[in-house]
Amino acid sequence: MLPAITFLLTAAAVFFFALLVLGVLQRAFEKYKERYVTKSMNDLSDMFLFVDPGQILLLNFAALIVLAGFGWLFGGWFFCGVLGILGFVLPMAAVRFYRARRIDRFNQQLTEALQQIANALRAGLTFQQAMEQIGRESAPPLRQEFGLFIKEVKLGVPVEEGLTNMAARVGSEDLELVATSTNIARQLGGNMAEMFETIAATIRERFRLEGKINSVTSQGKMQGWIVSCLPIGIGVFLAWDRPDLIEPMFDHSLFGYGLLLAIALLELMGFLLIRRIVNIDV
What we know:
With 282 residues, the chain is mainly α. The chain folds into three domains: 19-100, no CATH class; 103-209, Receptor-associated Protein (Up-down Bundle); 213-278. It has helices at 2-46, 53-122, 127-137, 142-154, 159-170, 173-188, 192-241, 243-246, 253-278. It is flat, with a radius of gyration of 27 Å.
């Protein structure tokens, strides 16, 4: 009788514990969808990429499962966990990379667009007409953003609010400067053509300084990549060519995997420090 009661109590405890874990996992999943999926959808929609939330979740879990499977197949459970975490954050990193590249492309197009706006204003066009003309003649992403701005203005949105919305949507500091300067000039008056030429010249000078800084710091950045990747490359080569030199390190699992974790953390810290030193903001 006593073993049966003990079994029932144990089964009930396991059942309620499983319910508690499932509740925690469900709340964590809802938080994940609220933060990650919503933010990713907003970022993608701001870049005129409209993706279903289910596809984002499917892509994220597919990357997690595929990379975790490769890690388990070629390196065991440790690499399975590491690559699984990498697969979990990889889609978010890809969205951020694509957004940063789009902002850089937009900033490069913006300098020429500002000069064209100045020329159009001198030719007698209004600011809205100049934006519409340049938006038609430009390539994406500037054409997309200017086109949406013109559509908002035609639907009754004030020009000042439309510029503010575009600056918030794109995420470009240069465009924020243009929007703020334009709104002030429209309210207080002034030579807007000359203002746009001055802003364009300022942005070009910043591009020139950034290019010079990148050329000077490129050696330091390359050293950071080499120093970070060299131990990994040596470890992979030895594991492939001389596995007898690597296998003794994993005879004691705690020491071997702990040493790998310490190496990875130190390499990451060194890489981040080097990037921080050579990353000069203009």
